């Protein structure tokens, strides 16, 4: 009789599958503790803590985590906020305090309360935290009224990313950041205070700082200059800085080893985009980007370009190019001369299919920018989105060659929609 078939009016059933002892093994639990903890460090701490119910093996494993990730979703229910705060307190109380922390991540959309937040900061510092990421709405501008400044003198911190989610006011930072091990820093919507009468110098004491990102940053009323001074800094991004509405306020760089510089302004506001200058010639600058989507004055733009005179690869946005063309159309600014880009090897123009610019306009803007530059080879690139066709690079290259053929090599390379083409002129 064949099993599972109906025979003489009776239905036989399939026998239960007998699993071997090999198949019934809990392979995950057999992994070493350090492997399991490595996996658990990639998930939210609440999910990691839930593993304690799996078996005796897992009961206390989460207490050895080196990464704490707390995520509080946006909610209108105060009960959820209270439960979240209790959970965080429980984790800090029960975790094995003999183990150092590597990473702490906080994503908070409601008020966490200054007392609990400061407890987290003190716990992180006392346990030698190395990386700290915070997305928090700081509803009070003064650091002393909300966030214990102990985190800004942490000796072990190598990475700090602070995002103030509150629209106003910006979070006021200490005058100087005493972070000797810090290598990477990202600050969004913060306020810098002057260390003397007019100058704010928050980064001078961060001797190992390599990467710096500033966005939506302000100067306090008593400051006129944001002085970014650091001999080790190699990468700097300045995005939508809102200093003041007068040319007396500016950003000054003292970063002799800077290799990458990005300046971006996307939002039009009542704040005039401030001048940017440098106390050194930035002789190590390899890559530079100017991305403008709002109106700025021609003198400010020329000042920015002056900072990039030693760059090797320069990328300009569509908005930047249109701004140059606007200035060229004004007879009052036609006599203004761009700087000499003494090391420039590649000029890239980035746009998309929604913003059309003609061959003649590109050619005119590029010729203006490079009129004083002794170029050996030029790489002009237009990166288009969603498969748009590139139509104007060849006329631009021909125009450049005709403008100064003796200064351009026998062949030019250009990037056509991310595909490299070569050809002589």
From TrEMBL:
Origin: domain of life: Eukaryota
Pfam families: F-box
Gene3D superfamilies referenced in this protein's UniProt entry, alphabetically: Ribonuclease Inhibitor (3.80.10.10)
Region (Disordered): 1-25
UniProt domain F-box: residue ranges: 25-74
InterPro entries per the UniProt record, alphabetical: F-box-like_dom_sf, F-box_AtFBL13-like, F-box_dom, LRR_dom_sf
Stated name of the protein: Putative F-box/FBD/LRR-repeat protein isoform A
